[in-house]
Amino acid sequence: MIAALAPNPSIDRFFLVADQVRAGAIHRPAELVATAGGKGLNVARAAATLGGDVRAIALLAGHAGRWIADELLDNAIRADVVWTTGETRTSLSAADPESGRPTEFYERGESTDPAAWERFAERVSAVTDARWASVSGSLPPGVPASASADLVERARETGARVAVGQSGAALTAALGAAPDLVKANANEAHGATGHDQPRSAALALHDLLSARREALGLGAPATIVTAGEDGAYLVDPSGSLWRGSVDARGPFPNGSGDSFLGGLLVALDAEGDGEPRWPETLPLALGAAAANAERAGAGKLDPRRARALAAQAVVTSA
C-alpha cells in the first residue's frame, strides 16, 4: 500500500482558453477542469488511477476542504482527513491549446492550527500497513520546514520506505531526515545541489542523501531528477546512473512530475518488500508523466495510455 501525505492540498482550477493568455484581457475559458490537487493529492490520484492501493492523508479546512473530500470520494480514493480551521487554498492555471504553457496563480493557504498539525502528524504515525509513503508538496504557512523531516521520520517509523517530492527549505529539511528516495525536477534539484544539469544534479543529490543515510546507519538511497521532455535521471542505491525517456509530447505538463512519482510508487509497491529493480520501475513513471501531459488537469491521466507509453519507454545506462 502507498500512503500519500498531502499537508497543503488545494482546489486546482485549470482554464483552457481559446487565445494566448494576455494581461489585461478578458478570457472566456473553452474548458475548465477542477481537481482535488496540491502535489500530495496529485500523486495519490495518479497512483490510484494506475491501479495502486493508495491512501491519502490530507489536511483540509472549510468549504473548499469539503469539496476536496467529496472529490476524493467520487474518485474512489481512500482518504484519512484531518480538519483544521480556516479555508483550504485554491490555485488557478490558464493556458491556450497551442502552447500549453500555463500562467499560474498559487495561493499559499492559511496558517493551520498547531493542534490540527499535530493531529495530522499523528495520523501519519498511525499508518502501519504502507510499503511506501510519499511526502510531497509545500507545507501550510506557519508550519516550519523542519516539519518535513518530522513527517519523513514518522513515516519511516511505521516501517514504510519514504519518498520525498518537495522543494526549497522543505526539501532541505527532508534530506536531513534521510528518506529512501528523493524525486525532484531540474529546478528543485538545482536549488538543493547548485547543479544546473539534471544528470549532475541527480548524482550530487545522491551524494548528499547517501552521506546522511550512512551517518544514520541506513542503507543506500535512490535519487531521481526529471527533466521534462528530456526524460529522467535515476541514481540507484548502487550508485549506477540510468536515463529514461519516452517519445511523447503533450501540451499540458502541469502535474506531470506528480504523476511520475505516482507511477513510480505503483511500480515500487508492486516490487514487494525486496530491493526494487530500479531501472524497471522507470517506464511506468515515464508513461504516467507523458499521459498526464496529454490531458488537461494535473494527475488526470488515462491509465491505458500511460501503460502503452510505458511499454515504449527506453531506459539506458547513463
From TrEMBL:
Q: Which organism is it from?
A: Conexibacter arvalis
Q: Report a single Gene Ontology molecular function.
A: phosphofructokinase activity
Quote the InterPro entries the UniProt record gives.
Answer: PfkB_dom (IPR011611), Ribo/fructo_kinase (IPR002139), Ribokinase-like (IPR029056), Tagatose/fructose_Pkinase (IPR017583)
> Which Gene Ontology terms of cellular component type are present?
cytosol
Keyword Isomerase in annotation: no
**Is ATP-binding a UniProt keyword of this protein?**
yes
The Carbohydrate kinase PfkB domain is annotated at 18-300
| UniProt family annotation | Belongs to the carbohydrate kinase PfkB family.
> Which keywords describe this protein according to UniProt?
ATP-binding, Kinase, Nucleotide-binding, Transferase
Basic and acidic residues compositional bias: what residue ranges?
98-111
Name this protein carries in UniProt: 1-phosphofructokinase family hexose kinase
Q: Where is this region: Disordered?
A: 92-112
